[in-house]
Amino acid sequence: MEAEYDGTVFSLFSILDNVFRENKLHDKITRKDMGSGLSSLSLKSSDAQGELFNTLPDADEKTLKDGYSLSSPSPCSTACLPYPLQHSYNAAAYKYFEPCRTSFSGQEIIKYSGKAYKDILYAWMSELPIEKEVIHFAWKIVSAGRMQDMENKECNYSPKKRGSSAEKARCDLADENIKKVITAASRARKESHFLMGILRFSIGSSGVPVAKCSPDYFILPALAHHFTLRFGNSVWAIIDEKRNISLMHAKSEPAKLVIFDPDHPWFKEETDSNKENFDDWEKMWKNYHTSINNESRSNPNLQRRFIPIRYWKYLPELNDQKIDKP
Description:
41% of the residues lie in helices and 10% in strands. It has 326 residues and is an alpha/beta fold.
């Protein structure tokens, strides 16, 4: 039995739905293009095939194959957006993963470990080629939870500790597949928290605060809730230049995840006549940074460790600073 995977998180949970419903593992996964709705987009296609399942626990002997050679996926780009998001501004970012949460596999995973469910989402956002490991991870969590449910039922135990076995399975870093998922999730989670602290918003000619970034991972969906709470009912936008995607928040509306449109009124470039006025906030911030800086305690190496150079071009206080090689 084969499964097709198009690189989206929704396709991943669709595969998990089949695994958990049938209690049976697919013996092969094939990476496919997104299909309808993306014909006008320039995306790299990957026709590579590979054996997905190799050492999954409690799997049928007939479904286990040797080897795994699925090639690394192309960058997330717009392929990560579900089709309706590609042509409309009507999808709320906080509902981006809603189909995953309400799916059969999503409910099964959350039932035994909400932390594991979030780990899977962050691992997918890392864009690393770890589909096999993610399915192994989910299978082990749900298998451990179901087994404990059966034991509790047979022994008339209280269900209060329902998730204890699943949590133990989640923390089993001796399992290489589990370790890869937790590591990938940790990296994506770390960058999302990092950007929450260093994103700099500048006001353009439209009067809308806009922040630009090129994160290593596809973490814009993870930023929506934080910045909605931070800015309240204000208008703002975050642009992911690496993936050509923007997170936009209008008054009285939830933040929306859409394909970046440079012609949108919010993103108009400043004209020469009003650029100086809009630079006042940036000048004020640079003056503040200069005034609190203590040159005698300058430590460039430590500065690079806290804020890697690849982020400097988006920080007004650092983007014109001379970069010395360590």
